[in-house]
Design brief:
Layout lengths: L9 E3 L1 H12 L1 E4 L2 E5 L6 E6 L4 H4 L7 E9 L5 E9 L5 H8 L6 E7 L7 E6 L1 E4 L3 E2 L2 E2 L5 E2 L1 E3 L4 E6 L6 H16 L3 E5 L8 H11 L3 E8 L7 E5 L10 E5 L6 H11 L3 E5 L7 E10 L9 E13 L26 E3 L4 H15 L17 H19 L3
Parallel strand pairs: 14-15, 15-18, 18-19, 19-22
Antiparallel strand pairs: 1-21, 2-9, 3-4, 4-5, 5-6, 5-7, 7-8, 10-14, 11-12, 13-14, 16-17, 16-21, 20-21
Helix pairs in contact: 4-5, 5-6
Length: about 400
C-alpha cells in the first residue's frame, strides 16, 4: 500500500517503534553498554561501556566477554520463580539485549571473562536511565571525556554531532560555552557527516546557537492541507565571534541539512565536503494499534511515517530530492554555494567511519587499546586550513 507513495513514507512495526523512540529521546533504560557477538566464542563482547552509565560505574570494560546472563527478576522487576542463568553462546543478540534491558532500579548479574583474569567473575548492575552521547569531540581523554580542541596552537575546536536528539542542543550549548569561556576558541569545525537527522526542534535550536536573528527553515505543506510554518533565530545567546566550517557528505540528511543550509545562507559557516542527501521532506507519525503476535491481551503500537510537507531553507529553495530529481536540479546542500567541494574515495569514507567508531570506545584504565590510526581525512584537513587562514586574516586586521 505504501509503495506507491514517496520513499520516506514507511511502516514501523512495534519493535522498531520502540527502537526509534530511544534514538529520538536520546535515552533508554538499561545498563549502558554497546555489545556484539564475538566471532571466536559466539558469546557477547562488550564493545564499550557508555560514559557515566551503570555498566561504566560498575567497571565493565571494552573487550570483556559476557558468558552468562543471570536474572532473579524479569525486565519489569518482578521476581522470577527461580534464578535464571542463560549462557550467551548461541543466544541471539536481539534476545540477549532484551534480557539485559529492563526497568530502572531492577537488577541483573553478568558473568564476565576478562583478559588478564584467571577466572570468570560476576558483576551485579542496577539498571538506570542511560543518556546516549550525540555531541562528540575528536578523541577520548584518559577520563573518558571528549577532547574538543583539535588544534591548540590556533585554538580551533571540533565537534561531531551524530544525530538530533532531545539532549543534543543542551549538550552542544554546554560544550560551546566551555570552549569559549575556558579555551577562548578562535574557530570551530562542526562535523555533520553521516548524521541522518532527528528532531526538528533540536536542529532549529542548534542553528540558532550560531546565527544572529533571521530565518532558519520553513515547512511548506500542500496549500489545501495546512499553513506554512516559519522558524527563525534570535540574537540572544548566539555565538558569533569565531569563524566556522560545517562538514557534510551524502549521509548528512534532514536535520543536518537544515543546520548546514541555515549557516550557509547566513554566511555564518563555510561548507566543506560533498553534497548532502536531499532529505527535505517532513513526516508525521500516525500511531495505531496492532494485535500482539504472541497472543497477549494488550495490543502493540505500530506507526506509519507519512510525508506531509517539505523543508525550505532561508533562501527559499527546497531541500528535498524527489525520485524524479536530477543531479543538475537544486536540492540538498552543496558546498560550492558557499564553501568547497572535497570528494572522497569509498576507501577514505570507510576509513573515516571506522575511525569515528574507534574513538568512541572507552578503553579500560591502564590498558592500552588498539592504536587509533588517523585516517586520511582530506575534508577535515581542508577545514583546518580554511580556519587557520581566517584566523590569520583576523589577526592581521586587528580583529
Amino acid at each position: 500500500m505504501l509503495h506507491k507513495l514517496d520513499p520516506h513514507t514507511t511502516y514501523f512495526d512495534p519493535e522498531t517503534v520502540e527502537r526509534i523512540k530511544k534514538e529520538i529521546e536520546g535515552n533508554f533504560t538499561g545498563i549502558g553498554i554497546q555489545i556484539r557477538k564475538d566471532i571466536n566464542t559466539d558469546q557477547l563482547l562488550v564493545v564499550t561501556p557508555i560514559k557515566g552509565s551503570p555498566a561504566h560505574k560498575a567497571g565493565l570494560q571494552a573487550g570483556d566477554l559476557i558468558t552468562t546472563i543471570i536474572r532473579e527478576e524479569d525486565s519489569l522487576g518482578k521476581p522470577l520463580a527461580k534464578t535464571e542463568r542463560t549462557p550467551t553462546k548461541g543466544l541471539p543478540l536481539s534476545k540477549a539485549v532484551k534480557m539485559i534491558l529492563g526497568q530502572i532500579d531492577s537488577k541483573v548479574r553478568l558473568e564476565i571473562t576478562r583478559e588478564g583474569k584467571e577466572k570468570p567473575f560476576e558483576v551485579e548492575i542496577t539498571r538506570g536511565l542511560i543518556e546516549v552521547e550525540s555531541v562528540m569531540g575528536h578523541k577520548r581523554k584518559a577520563d573518558a571525556e571528549w577532547e574538543y580542541v583539535i588544534d591548540a596552537k590556533t585554538k580551533i575546536a571540533y565537534i561531531r554531532l551524530t544525530n538530533f536528539a532531545d539532549n543534543s542542543f543542551r549538550d552542544m550549548e554546554a560544550v560551546v560555552k566551555h570552549l569559549v569561556n575556558k579555551h577562548g576558541i578562535k574557530g570551530l569545525i562542526l562535523d555533520l557527516r553521516g548524521n541522518p537527522g532527528g528532531l526538528l526542534p533540536a536542529a532549529v535550536e542548534i542553528s540558532d546557537l550560531f546565527i544572529d536573528d533571521g530565518a532558519i527553515v520553513s515547512i511548506r505543506p500542500r496549500p489545501d492541507v495546512a499553513r506554512e510554518e516559519h522558524f527563525g533565530g534570535r540574537s540572544r545567546g548566539s555565538f558569533l565571534d569565531f569563524p566556522m566550517v560545517v562538514l557534510i557528505n551524502e549521509g548528512s540528511a534532514s536535520g543536518s541539512e537544515i543546520v548546514a543550509a541555515a549557516l550557509q545562507d547566513h554566511r555564518r559557516a563555510y561548507i566543506i565536503g560533498e553534497r548532502s542527501y536531499g532529505k527535505g521532506s517532513v513526516q508525521r507519525m500516525v500511531l495505531f494499534e496492532v494485535p500482539d503476535p504472541n497472543g497477549g491481551p494488550t495490543p502493540l503500537r505500530a506507526q506509519i511515517k507519512l510525508t506531509t510537507a517539505s523543508f525550505h531553507r532561508p533562501n527559499g529553495r527546497n531541500l528535498n530530492r524527489t525520485p524524479a530529481s536530477k543531479d543538475t536540479d537544486d536540492w540538498g546542500v552543496q558546498p560550492g554555494d558557499y564553501g568547497r567541494e572535497v570528494k572522497l574515495t569509498n576507501k577514505e569514507r570507510r576509513d573515516i567511519a571506522e575511525h569515528h567508531r574507534r574513538v568512541e570506545i572507552i578503553e579500560a584504565p591502564g590498558r592500552k587499546g588498539k592504536e587509533v590510526k588517523e585516517p586520511n581525512d582530506r575534508q577535515l584537513e581542508a577545514a583546518l586550513q580554511y580556519l587557520r587562514g581566517q584566523i590569520k586574516l583576523a589577526a592581521r586586521s586587528g580583529q
